[in-house]
Design a protein that fits this description.
alpha+beta; globular; 4 domains; Cytochrome Bc1 Complex, Chain D, domain 2; 7 helices; Immunoglobulin-like; 36 strands; five-stranded antiparallel sheet
Length: 581
């Protein structure tokens, strides 16, 4: 009779949850934290007549997916009337697929080989040692892991040293800065160390286990674009829509998250503009491309709700009138590579100029730009800044590419930017490992050394503290401007390379992009504790986060480049929402 007890308990449990799914292992024991994703089987046919994309001003409906996690009893409420398929996933178990609601699904364990293959990229990356040269590994991570996951199954494939060198050189034309002297050693290490890991996968540590808080959230995804798109940044707008930018195809997706309907607006460019803008066409190997402007980062005006967008391939600022659905191009007198953007309480627009080491302010009243120069780190770098106008006067096809060094001389790269509660402007320079503060009243620029590696994006909390990701160090860093003190916090997953973060000022939570580990990481400031949220797709590379002030829901986009390497091969907008009690 004792052997029948678990079965009886399961039957009672199933009866108590008649509208939900019970997930068990092969022996019938409940599986907690199983991920169940619901996908619609019937979606209106999309108009994709513009080279496989939605034409300007046209609306389509996304195939919205919903993901929930089972509770401690293995139960998950996921079924809905209509035609759906269901995928059931749990760590260490083979996926199961359902084409109709059922009371129970039992998952079979993975083989050792299947289990290793299911690990996210970060745990594989943690075992690349580069022959014990930690500095070389950091150089590699800084330059080779900001567009895609580095140790994914695709990247772990066998390649010759020559093939790795070819990949590295092509990535440098895309925007990486891997030093010339490091390219051959890294190619050799990639070949030998990936081979060692493939032959001895037991060396790779287990990923972090999924935890009980997952039963309290729901994930929703809106697939948009295709395998060539790059949904870089986005904006949660006060009007209720989410606006997502396709960096490689100069399109803005306006998504109604209530209905799943989205409308696409094609960003205009001047008739004489060339593909790739002032940088030239760096993606000639791609079968299709439409990045004349290079839609990058978004900010909303506090006065009229218009959206300001940095077009990284032009010396300009874009404005999108959300009422008229029209774009305005504001030509800029100087500066190169408009990057991350914010607006302040005075309705001024601030953004970094990544290549020219400047910060720009756009005054909406006068429609004038003010450029703030950030200091060079050496005389050589100062001379390189001065030579930029001459360099960019040369046709992109003939323009010489500089030979990068480990210090990225000539490219300190102002990257992230934010407006503090007191109105001060803070900037992180990625390759210079420093911060800049701009007093918006006096224009005074103050530089502060950042004692970590790779400050990308930063945000200020409600108290005026800065939160910064240290990319190569796998750290979250707080800077208190009053005490002029830094505090670092280890991330809860190994060898993560955090791209960006955002601060929920109302709830005092810092949300960090876990782009190598297929996660979003929530740091609760008061308790200094973490909660980790696995993504519903593998190879989910995220670059930004938006927070709903109303309910604390967070949004991110799958921006893996190339997108076809991600599970499902389509970029998505993702929302993680707390479930109602």
């Amino acid at each position: 009779m004792r052997s029948l007890l678990p079965i009886a308990l399961l039957l009672c449990s199933a009866a108590a949850h008649a509208d939900s799914l019970l997930v068990t292992d092969a022996q019938g024991q409940p599986l907690a934290q199983a991920m169940v994703t619901r996908t619609p089987l019937e979606v209106p046919v999309a108009d994709l007549s513009d080279d496989g994309y939605t034409p300007d001003g046209t609306s389509n409906t996304a195939a919205v997916t919903v993901t929930r996690f089972s509770d401690a009893e293995g139960q998950v409420d996921i079924f809905q009337d209509g035609k759906f398929s269901y995928r059931v996933r749990a760590q260490g178990y083979r996926d199961a697929y359902l084409d109709a609601p059922t009371a129970t699904v039992a998952l079979a364990p993975m083989s050792d080989e299947e289990h290793y293959a299911s690990y996210p990229s970060n745990v594989w990356l943690s075992q690349l040692t580069f022959g014990g040269d930690q500095e070389l590994k950091q150089v590699f991570q800084l330059n080779c892991a900001f567009c895609h996951q580095q140790a994914s199954p695709f990247m772990r494939n066998e390649r010759t040293v020559e093939q790795w060198l070819s990949v590295i050189q092509r990535m440098n034309t895309y925007g990486a800065r891997l030093p010339t002297d490091d390219q051959l050693p890294i190619a050799e290490m990639m070949q030998s160390e990936y081979r060692e890991l493939r032959e001895n996968p037991d060396q790779v540590p287990l990923p972090r286990r999924w935890e009980s808080h997952l039963a309290d959230i729901e994930m929703t995804e809106w697939p948009i674009g295709d395998g060539f798109s790059q949904m870089h940044d986005f904006l949660l707008h006060p009007n209720g829509y989410v606006y997502v930018g396709d960096n490689l195809f100069d399109r803005i997706y306006e998504i109604d998250t209530d209905t799943g309907e989205y409308t696409v607006y094609k960003v205009p460019h001047y008739e004489d503009a060339r593909l790739g803008g002032i940088l030239g066409n760096r993606f000639e190997v791609f079968p299709k491309m439409h990045n004349y402007m290079g839609v990058h980062s978004f900010a909303v005006s506090p006065s009229d709700g218009n959206i300001f967008i940095t077009p990284s391939m032009q010396q300009a600022l874009l404005e999108f009138d959300v009422t008229k659905k029209e774009f305005i191009i504001h030509d800029m007198p100087g500066g190169l590579y408009p990057h991350t953007i914010r607006t302040d309480a005075n309705d001024d627009v601030w953004f970094t100029l990544a290549l020219s080491s400047q910060v720009a302010k756009f005054d909406r009243d006068t429609r004038e730009f003010t450029l703030y120069d950030l200091p060079a780190r050496s005389v050589k770098e100062w001379l390189m800044f001065k030579a930029l106008p001459l360099l960019f006067s040369i046709d992109p096809e003939d323009r010489p590419l500089p030979s990068p060094d480990r210090e990225s001389t000539g490219l300190p790269m102002p990257y992230g930017i934010d407006v503090a509660p007191d109105g001060g402007i803070w900037v992180a320079r990625l390759y210079a490992n420093d911060l800049a503060h701009i007093d918006p009243d006096s224009g005074e620029v103050t530089m502060i050394d950042f004692p970590y590696e790779g400050p990308r994006r930063l945000r200020a909390d409600a108290e005026g503290n800065l939160w910064i990701v240290a990319f190569q160090n796998s750290l979250l860093v707080k800077y208190d401007p009053r005490k002029q003190e830094f505090t670092d916090y280890e991330l809860p997953v190994v060898n993560e390379l955090p791209y960006a973060l955002n601060v929920d000022r109302k709830r005092d939570v810092v949300w960090v992009n876990g782009n190598q580990s297929d996660t979003i990481l929530g740091f609760h400031i008061a308790s200094e504790s973490w909660k980790v949220y696995p993504m519903p797709r593998q190879r989910f590379f995220t670059r930004d986060i938006e927070v709903s002030e109303e309910d604390g829901a967070i949004y991110t986009s799958n921006s893996h480049f190339p997108t076809w390497q991600t599970e499902g091969a389509v970029p998505t907008l993702l929302r993680i929402t707390p479930l109602a009690d």
